[in-house]
């Protein structure tokens, strides 16, 4: 197990040193050429990676853009996947996920979705440090996978689609406002009028 962990770590460091990138993390043709970017934590590793990937894919990040990409926090968890004969954990499954939205002004989210990635790794009870390093490397790889999937989803969205969704959201919001106003007028109309108080 120790030999396997060392091999995995060595290979990962070697690939990183050679400038290796996961398939799909390069540039791709994006229909959206301008976006505002907001995040629960823009300075988190995930927020920085998404911002960098937008730049690499020639998407201009501007506060004046008509649509905003909002990024939720990166959610991580770990659960036991299998046990050894002594009921000590032998494998763990890591999960990384985040929610994202495409918004326009104060309207409800035009698009709302979630991206999730899972990986399983062997935990070496005799070399906890090596296992922890392997888990950290997997977390970084999973984060890159999350960003790649986000870029692929954004690639499929066009400004025309967002404009259509925006128009639908505006009509829905206006209809809700009119319905509330009508209900208020009806309540005022049917509410019994109090008789003026006479003082003798």
Automatic annotation (TrEMBL):
Gene3D superfamilies: Lipoprotein like domain
Record bears the keyword Zinc: no
Signal peptide stretch: 1-19
TM helices/strands, residue ranges: none
Keywords for this protein: Cell outer membrane, Lipoprotein, Membrane, Palmitate, Signal
Entry's localization field: Cell outer membrane
Domain of life of the native organism: Bacteria
Membrane protein topology class: Lipid-anchor
Predominant subcellular localization, coarse grouping: membrane
InterPro entries: LPS_assembly_LptE
Record family assignment: Belongs to the LptE lipoprotein family.
Function: Together with LptD, is involved in the assembly of lipopolysaccharide (LPS) at the surface of the outer membrane. Required for the proper assembly of LptD. Binds LPS and may serve as the LPS recognition site at the outer membrane.
Family matches, as HAMAP family: LPS_assembly_LptE (MF_01186)
Summary of subunit composition and partner proteins: Component of the lipopolysaccharide transport and assembly complex. Interacts with LptD.
Protein name, as recorded: LPS-assembly lipoprotein LptE
Provenance organism: Denitrificimonas halotolerans
Gene from which the chain derives: lptE
